[in-house]
Automatic annotation (TrEMBL):
InterPro entries: Kinase-like_dom_sf (IPR011009), Prot_kinase_dom (IPR000719), Ser-Thr/Tyr_kinase_cat_dom (IPR001245), Ser_Thr_protein_kinase (IPR050167). Transmembrane segments: none annotated. Gene3D superfamilies: Transferase(Phosphotransferase) domain 1 (1.10.510.10). The keyword Coiled coil does not apply. GO terms for molecular function: ATP binding; protein kinase activity. It comes from the Eukaryota. This is Protein kinase domain superfamily protein. Pfam families: PK_Tyr_Ser-Thr. PROSITE patterns: PROTEIN_KINASE_DOM. PANTHER family: PROTEIN KINASE FAMILY PROTEIN, SERINE-THREONINE PROTEIN KINASE. Keywords: Kinase, Transferase. The keyword RNA-binding does not apply.
Amino acid sequence: MQAEWMAPEILRNEPSDEKCDVFSYGVILWELCTLLQPWEGMNPMQVVGAVGFQQRRLDIPGGVDPAVAEIIRRCWQTDPRMRPSFSEIMATLRPLLKNMPANQPTRKRAQQTDD
């Protein structure tokens, strides 16, 4: 994995657990919401310094659903113990999926194939 998606504790070569994956998931969720590359224009060493040692995080645009923005922020907590579990993340996302407009693809529709 590249530095852009890594948790601060990984970048600092500290002990880690599944909460580092939660941090990375927050970056991926940010990508899905913004359609942007994380830390574009920065080289990996700059990302290590910014995320791992300066506690910087990507900007979450105002147009991102507030509930999703809050998930992203929680995933990016500096203290891994403060990050949500994947079960907590899913519990927050499920109600949002129910409120998606009908023209948005859902998992069931995405799995259908033309025969």
